Amino acid sequence: YTAQSLAAVPGQPNSVAVYSNNGVVTIYDSGVARAKTSSGLNVYFNSNSGGLAFGSSASTLYLNSYAVSPSLYALTIDSTGVTAAKSLNNGNGNTVQYDNNRLYLSSGVVLDPSTGNQLGQFSTTTSYSNSPVPAAGPMVSDSSLGRAWVLFSGYSYNTQILAFDEDTYNFVASTPPITGIGSLSSGGPYSTPSDLIRWGQNGLAFHTSNQLYVLQSPLVKDVSNSPADLAITVQAPAAATTGTAFNYTVKVANLGQNTASGVTLTTFLPGGVIGGTFTTSQGSCSGSGVLYCDFGSLAKGASATLTIPVTPTVAGALSLSSYGASLSFDPTSSNNQASATTTVTGNPYNAPPTVTQLSPDLIQAGSSTTTLSVDGTGFTAGSTVLWNGQALPTAFVSTGQITATVDSSLISQLGWAQVAVTTPAPGGGQSAPLPLHIYQLLNVPANTISFDPFTRKIYAVLPSTATSISGNSLVVIDPATGSVGAPIQVGSEPNLLSETSDGNYLYIGLSGAKSLRRFNLLTQSPEATIPITSPVVYQSGNVAAAGIATIPGSDSSLALDIPSGGIGIFDISGSTGTFRSKMSQIYGGDNPVFVDSTHLYAYDSETTGAEFYRYSVDSSGVTLVDGTTLNGIGGFSGKFSVDGGLVFGAGGGIINPGTTPPSQIAVLPLGNGSYFNTVTGAGVVPYQAEQKAFIIGISTSSNTANYLERFDTSTFTLDRQIQLPLTTNSSLKGLRFGQDGLAYVLPTNSTSGIGGQPNQIFLLRGPFVLPAEAISNSAPVLTSTSASTIPVGTGNTYLTVTGTGFLPGAVVLWNGSARITTYLDSTHLQVAIPAADLATAKTVTVTSQNPGSGASNSLTITIQ
Length: 864
Known about the structure:
Helix content is about 0%, strand content about 50%. Strands 34, 36, 37, 40, 41, 42, 68, 69 and 70 form a 9-stranded mixed β-sheet that branches. Strands 23-32-31-25-29-28 form a 6-stranded mixed β-sheet, with no helix packed on it. Strand 10 (about 100-105) and strand 11 form a beta hairpin. The termini are far apart. Mean pLDDT is about 90; it is low at about 185-190, about 670-680 and about 750-755.
């Protein structure tokens, strides 16, 4: 086999990582292969091409394997070879560069190297479009200058080198077009550049199949100014003992005649030490194995220092090296680096363990006994995996990995666990935990689902083709236990659900009967069937609704979306219903969503796949306010949700509907947009109280895994993702239940294809949904409730609880039992009290809990 990519092993001059054209990564020492290669990890790497780059140390190697999804992996390397592979999923292209705790890909994407989350996207425009497109092409980063350069080239437009600011991801400047490359209009042969490298203080270079290009430019660094002169020194003791801390002191001095601007320092810590809290005399630093410092400007004769406390854990020679740079011209480079070596003696001293990854981190409830792989640092043969504080049978693999046996009894039910590692003295300690989620997959072939806050149940309707459960029915699901009730026949082809705001009724759209069915949630029984008669002149007879939405505050009025007929208000009396006179125009939006009793939103997924509509509602019907073309609602299959006054589209769009016209806030980065692995969104579930949004990332590649993705809606970045147990190309419905639950309707995976397979319901609870659950928080303090006495027999009721210290996800407990609670603000909660709780006279104790806290003080309410 031949090498596709090479990466020299840091600190080991006779060792190299090789990615060969059989798709295998091997480490060679003086030409001798280490025993363990990536072929033993049961992961597939594409054999055509790929890029390698080591991280901050020789223990982590990144591989970006072209045209395979997931394509980006972090490989764990030790003296035996390649021992583990963690999928980072968001890879693309055939190159990867690690710089300043970031990964730079040729797709123009910048990733977090520990999670694979997308931190940013370098974008540009072309002669064909003023809309941003990914700045894809060979890329090189130089964090010491805070710049990244992309060689942007295409068949139908000129090649240019684009410079970007690495902090803001904004375009800075570009070279003039470089003729003869990647463009027919240039008169030269079409030849794609395959790399881009830095050289010298202001140089870049790249090559094509038949030419080498070398340039120097102020686009890289301006060397026309009067020079500065950085000098680096490192101080450390000559000798030390294991377990005893000492300090490294790194000094950067400007010996030149002028101010040095943009001074940076890159410091490589030795292995075999426990790092303490580093301090600087000015500026700031970040990192762990490699520290990256930005000192700003240093005047003539000025200096800055970095102090690094470390505790050695093994005997031997420890060497620290440091490199300085600045934006100013520095003609003397010989003093820009320095190192120091300390000889350590003593017995081994255990480092505190850290946990970075669990595999699997998602287990199906009811699974058999499972082997759990725990990746991290500082593991020893005496380390033990803890499951909610309980020790599990543990096996040592390497200092970066241990495995544990999880008994089936621990994963029998929907929920989550905290997984940590403890290492014995000397040194050692307990790591911070990572959550492991236990999901449930219910064999309920639902068309759609709805959650009722009063009964605390999920309601699902099933098509006539259902076989595992009787079709044309509604079933009630308890998400706390995963139990599914007996099917209740409701009519022909139920496919839509909408609950009244008081929790009294659930309206069901029957596409087969072209009607609505009303289900009484208080008695748990179906009631009237209401035919839907077409309200438009060019249609006759009954029609099936394409979307329904109950009007807040009403038990008998809904907005109905009529195919090829628009949206109208449908008023029900007994078993009949009539449309109000004013309807929307045809193609005036689909899937209506009310924001209050007099306003609704809709989205055109039939003609433009982009237009967002606002309507007012009154006694005569609906009136169009405006229609606005916006991004990220999801194209022709798009849908949206409303939360916290914002609109969230299935394509990642976030919209402020409170402006006129509605304005685009952001589009969440669902995926890197590569040709081979484009990712679209589905089933958006926002939770703006905690500034999160959940979207299923669906790849257009049919054999690609799909992910449930959590986004931060304040920074518009991917927070975390977990791989779904099913491969799907669509999601029918997603919703939030309880304080920390998510439910989705998903198609079943099939080796013969997705089409025609029955749906299942996926349930998930825990810190992935409510991150605050995974940390300790203070309990709130209650002061009052909106009612201290409630008459016996009162129906479903919302109470407001007032207090202090409420966090998003806080829950109110009614006689110790949680009720569905909505976070309003830090001093107010709204809790749904079902009619059954108010059926008899009694005194009730009300308390509250924040995520990860104990119980608050108690208040009493009298039912009389």
